[in-house]
UniProtKB/TrEMBL annotation:
Pathway: Cofactor biosynthesis; NAD(+) biosynthesis; nicotinate D-ribonucleotide from nicotinate: step 1/1. It holds the Pfam family NAPRTase_N. It comes from Oceanisphaera sediminis. Transmembrane segments: none annotated. Signal peptide: none annotated. The modification Phosphohistidine is found at residue 217. The keyword Phosphoprotein applies. This is Nicotinate phosphoribosyltransferase. It is an enzyme of class 6 (ligase).
Amino acid sequence: MTDPVIRSLLDTDLYKFTMMQTVLHQYPAAEVEYRFRSRNAELDFGDCVEEIEAEIEHLCQLRLTEDELAYLGRLDYIKSDFIHFLRLFRLDRRFIHLSCHQGELELSIKGPWLHTILFEVPLLAIISEVYCRRHAVGTDLAAARARLQDKISLVQDDSDNDDFRFSDFGTRRRYSRAWQQEVVTALAQQLPLQFAGTSNLDLARRLGLKPVGTLAHEFMQAFQALGPRLIDSQKMALEAWVHEYRGRLGIALTDVVGMDAFLRDFDLYFAKLFDGLRQDSGDPVEWTEKALAHYRRMNIDPRSKTLVYSDGLTMHSALDLYRRFRHQCRPAFGIGTHLTNDLMSHSPINMVIKMISCNGQAVAKLSDSPVKAMCEDPGYLAYLAQVFDVDLATVK
């Protein structure tokens, strides 16, 4: 195999490392399972499996270099014992189960949370790039560069967006490693004020950018199994995060069991401790209005809080939300596929790898968008919805 997709264990999102550090310190014995899902039912991965397998073998040979470890060690929220652990760390191929039946890719990851948490993002990047290599029809780099320049110009031509801030969140569904680097480099050079950074640690390190991210759905999901009472799982997850980071990385994800259920747990204590919230499903305007009203009910000025939007954004939709809410909060935006995979004549793969169990117990993501809900145990899904007073008709 030449020119592998993943060349560094840092070629992943920051929040995988921040969650991994928390797992090391608080739940090192937890066992989990993840499952791959493509929401594009018509795709045929049959001719991709052999190459994906070779890419996985290469991924599992990688280790962090001393330069990469030194970079992580300079981040003020990364602790020295975690660096020592990472010096010995390598992904283990035995935890991945890969097959393909009638063109449908079947992929699961099962093992210790501490040793499997870093698989998700590079595996998705591998699947996306391998599929694009074999099936991208009508790819036109010149046209893609022109579209990228149009997006940059959209920001440059607006004279009233000095506090508009967005980041690259596009690693997992990118067209290729090379294209993501080209996009991020162009954004950093041409929009130095508005481009806040990238979730990709490898690019942040090599290009001198700010790494961006906090926590993901799996962290909140795991606590559905880690705690004594399901009803307390969100509060336990937020407490664990506060315990680990003591006020740093203070953006909370709201949609694991839905925004309404989240806000019932996000009381004055958490509202003051966390810097803001992240929206990843549902109607962003409705979500924002709920967040603003929640802060105001607690006599917290929402203009002091950051609201991060990361659900299928385009540059146009991000700017629209910014203009609508810029005077009521501090909006920020994580833009993914729209930046890193708009080269093909057809839509990019809409795919995820999500945690489905922890310590042998089912866990679920209900989401604020029906298509994003994920659970393989209907009985547990019904129980979760009952406990958190969620109407299953809105998520099925």
